[in-house]
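Complex record, two chains
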Amino acid sequence: MRRSFGSVATRWTISMCAIPLAAIAVGLSAQASAGRVVARQAKKVYLVENAQLRLTHNNEYESTLGERGQATGTFNAPVTAALTLSPAHVKATFTIYPRGGSISGTAQANYIVKGSTGYFGGTLTITHGAGAYRHASGKNLGISGTIDRQHFNMSIKAHGWAVL
Amino acid sequence: MSLARPLALALTGCACFASSSNAAQSIHLKVAFRPDRPGARTTIEFAFRISGPRHTVPSPVTSLDLRLPAHMGIDTTTLGQSNCYPANLIDGGIQGCSANARIGFGDATAIVPIGSGGIQEKASLSALMGPPAVDHLEVLFYAEALFPVFAQLVFPGVVISDTKPFGEQITTSIPLVQAWPEGPDFALETFNSTIGPLHLTYHRQVSGRTISYQPHGVTVPRRCPAGGYPFTALFSFQDGTHTTADYSVPCHTH
């Protein structure tokens, strides 16, 4: 079941700057474009991504927060995430939806509350992709950000090398 | 501001009474949700009563570990929008900290053992969000006793993750306090506290105006565990004994 926080508005901004490396070929993926599937070579890129997320719901286990927002940077794309908060840690699963596919992963971070703001910092893992990004992978990307404890809006920055 | 507000626990007759693990001290623990409705933001009300063997004065409590049900942590609440530091409480009383730091309130009684009986001391109690900490949340319990002995005490509590069927645990150290120099220690007899928005008002600035609002408390999980929402309290006493008390808030059947 879902539970709304009412007028809660959470903004998640992710900006990612992709720095293509010397095209380290890891595999081929298919990119859907104009109704065609186009062969696409996976590349190692350096992501610098910012996102603003807003709370959309609590799930039936109310300790998990559902968030949605827009990423900017390497991808300008919608992002969804589910966060589980505990006294000192935050765990998250996320999916970003760039054109032609999706990229999903997990994140773990330390979490500290200072007044009305929670701060987190940790690492992100890209676990899988779909469509044009089905070969997406990456480990130990850095992630940091803040959680507005009034509305559970989030600001997130992610950066690091990934294969896309 | 006086904190001596009575904590009227509306404990709906639950048969799930506390259990004690040894005969040295016995504990009665009761817990209630207000409101008690799955999916609702609620206030948790705790009530402990400690009795000594054969109704004698109990040994002073030195620590209290309270385990909360899974998915009822305070991390996803809006309680504690400000941090409170122990020194501010000692210096300025409850007004030494922002009202936005308060996460609950209650009262406590202690016994000063004299002869075969004792004198009862009453104190008001406030629960506040403590200083930021790296690996846990910190909760401060501030007790202010006015009669017959004036005393201010801060009990620091640490909130950490727990194992299922629990979600979080609040571990609170309770210092030994002598009633007078070279006198006996106070022996905690009752401890009643809330964690939640009941009777709390926070303030925030919006476009230059001060807005009053009530924070969100923990949510009563919609999925009730078999046997109810479990709470457990572990008390440690000065005489070296430990006593555990369990209580389950019953599930709604309708």
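Note: Chain B touches chain A at residues 39, 70-73, 75-76, 78, 80-83, 100, 129, 132-137, 159-161, 167-168, 204, 216, 218-219, 221-223 (CB under 8 Å).
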